[in-house]
Amino acid sequence: MNSKERVLKSLSFETVDRTPWVPYAGVQTANLIDMNAETYLKSADNIVNGVLAAYELYKPDGLPIAFDLQIEPEALGCELRWSENNPPAVMGHILEEKSVKDLKFPTENDGRYPIVLEAARRISEKLGDEIALYALICGPFTLASHLMGTNLFMDMILDPDKVKEVMDFTTQVAKDFSKMYSTTGVHIIATVDPMVTQISPDHFEEFVFPYLKDLNTYIKDLGLKVTTFCCGDATKCLELMCQTEPDGLAFDENVSLSFARELADKYKICIGGNLPLTTKMLFGSPMENVAEAKSQIEIAGGKPGYILSPGCDMPFDTPVENIVAISQFVRGEFTSLDVFKSDRQYEDEKDVQVFEDIIVESGKAFIEIITLDSEGCAPCQYMLESVKRILPKYGDKVQYRESLIKSKAGIARVMKLGVSNLPAMLINNDLVFDNLIPSETELMKEIDKRL
Fold it and tell me: CA-to-CA distance for 53 and 47, rounded, in angstroms?
């Protein structure tokens, strides 16, 4: 059984010879070829070279072509802000100025579509017989949030028909991109829809469920496997996601793997995840990563329908030796840390500097947004945007800061606060919005209480 067969059989809920390993090497592959994220994601040659480097180094069972949820919104006219070590972020939301009727469906010649489609074709020619190739598309609800910005959350309450019109449009965009990818030789369409974890189950049923189920059916009819990727605490909507009938679900460490394993067995759906991106993969040692992989496999492996993978796109600076160690362990080749030739030191975290505590002043409010990184995480970005949007209404009465857990100081802060889900929002040190992006009305109500 080769790597490609191992992944595809797992997505068919069939027994395989060992747990498949799929590192989500997105912008981290740019680091492998000594390149920043912007240069990497704007060139088919660079994407091909990065994926080939990841294939040689990590010896995976599957790899994504490109992990970038901004390809579709960019082609639709949204303004992007580029970063050196993250995928770009959407800064201008086109439907704040136009209506959905003004938008045209992207073609294979628009934006960066030609770049990723060419990269997919060339990677498929080189690796398509060896490993499973994932083509990532922006999920319909996340694309709707890119197009509408934080207005999406208010309009779900005030103008649901408008949101459904946008969802009809974004679902068709996802279908079109999937069909384009289906001609390149990829094996799996991964619908990456992180924003679905930021809404209630009721809103999921109304604004996501029918569209995602329709999209999954369409992709299967193209002859491809389909998986849904999400991040954040998807627990409340995970069973509903299963009922949209994907072949697989992937999530991060906010979801209990044992709980997901029960749903996988119930619905015969493959699950993927959920290696911690920062505490283990970014800041841990090779041995800590091996121990984590071993624990995950003991919980979810040994049965059909499990793929070991990170919780999301691996951070740009994720140490190569950590990823290699996991790969060697999965393949039964890990012997000792002597195989790693690295000068990295794994510091004692007792000396880590932490973010200062918030001092609450009478008549004022201080908002702290705990994020993975608002530059590279869509839910984190839109939680931060929801705060920035209301700031002009309050003048100097409201201040905010973003505490990123992509630093040891951020991790220490989260542990001190006892925050378990990301993104999260605290107002005057009270946890108010936990993995749930508020509407403008909801956020102002909580601020006004404290003023």
Answer: 10
